[in-house]
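Hey, can you fold this?
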Amino acid sequence: MHHQIIGSKEGTATRSLLCLAALTVGAVFLAIGILGFIPGITTDYDSMKFAGHESDAKLFGLFNVSILHNIVHLLFGLAGLAMSRAARTAQLFLVGGGVIYLALWLYGLVVGRHDTANFVPFNTADDWLHFVLGLGMIALGVLLARRAFAGSTRREERQVP
C-alpha cells in the first residue's frame, strides 16, 4: 500500500524544495568525486594514493584527496541523487549526511595529520569544509522538512491501493 499526502500547494512546493536540495547536494558530491580524478583540477595527482595520509594530491590545490576519498564522494553523490526522489528520504540524506560530516569534522580534529588513523586523508581545509557541510546539510534537512511537513497530519493521509 502507498500513502499519499494531501496538502496545500505550498506544502507540495516545499517538499519539492527539500527534494531539490538533496538532489543538488548529491550532484555536487558526485561532481567533486569526478573532479578528484582529473589531473590539473587535482594538484599533485601523480602522488595520489588509494588511502592514507601519504596522499599529497589536493583537489583545487586545497583539499587532500585519495582514491578512497573520491570514491566516497561519488557514492555519497549517488546516494543523494537516489534519496532525493521523496521528501522523507531527501530529509534523511540531508540530516543523516550532515551528522556524518560533523562526525568526520570531529574525527579530523582528533586524528593527527600523519597518523595512520588519518586514512581518508584529512587536512585543516577538509576539516572545516566538513564542519560547514555538516551544519549546512542538517539546516537544509531540518528547516525544509519543518516547512514541508508542517501541514501534514494523520487525518490528511489516506491509503491508496
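Oh, and this one too while you're at it.
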Amino acid sequence: MTSYASYPSLTGKSVFITGGATGIGASMVTHFAGQGASVGFIDIDDAAAEALAGRLGPGVRYLRCDVRDIAALQAAIAAFEAERGHIDVLVNNAANDDRHKVDEVDTAYWDNRMAINLRPQFFAAQAVRKGMARAGGGSIINLGSVVVQMAAAELAAYVTAKAGVYGMTRALAREFGPDRIRVNCLVPGWVMTERQIELWLDEAGERRIAERQCIPDKLMPEDLARMALFLAADDSRHCTSQSFIVDGGWI
C-alpha cells in the first residue's frame, strides 16, 4: 500500500475551493479535509456537493454559488471568512472546457467562457487578499491547463482563458508577495474525471494517452490534489509565481 505525505502545517488551516463538488475539485476537498484543514467549497451541483460534504463531516462546508456571479462569489468568501476568521488557502478550481468551433463563437458565448474560466479566479484572489495579509500570509492556487501549450483545437475560448490565468498568476504573485501571499498555477494534463471519461475518453483517446504521456498510467484527480497540498503547505513557502505541471509528461 502506498503512503503519501502529510503536512502538519495544513492542520487547522482554512481552505476555500471553487468548483469542489466533482472531479478534481472534489478530490481537493477530500484531500485537504484529510489533512485536518477546515474546508469551504462552492459549486452549483447541489446533489454531489451535499453528498460530499455529508461524507466528509462537520469540518467541510458547502455553499451554493455560480462563479459567474461575482457578487455571490464575494459573498460566499465573506461568509466563510466570518466563520473562520480568514482564509489561508484559496484554490481557484472551477472551470468548464466545453468544446466549440471558432466560426460558431459569438460575443455572448465568449464572455460566458471568460466569466467561468478566468474572471472568478481574479476576483476570488482579490477577495481573500486582505484576510490573508492580516494573517501573515497565505497560498493561492490557480488552475491552468496544458491545452495552452498544446494549442488544442475546438477550445479557442478555453485556451485563451487559461492562458490568461498564467499571466494573472505572475502579476498577482508580484503584488501579493510583500504580504507573504504566494500565488502559483497548477497545470493539469488530461485528468480522468467522470466528465472526461464519459464525454471524450474513447479508443482514440486511449491511444493519445499511450503515445503522448511519458508515464503510461492514467492521470487521476488525486494526482492534482496531492500537488495542491504541497503548494498550500509551508513546505513550499518560497514557491510563488510559478506553474507546476502535472501531466504524466504529456508536454
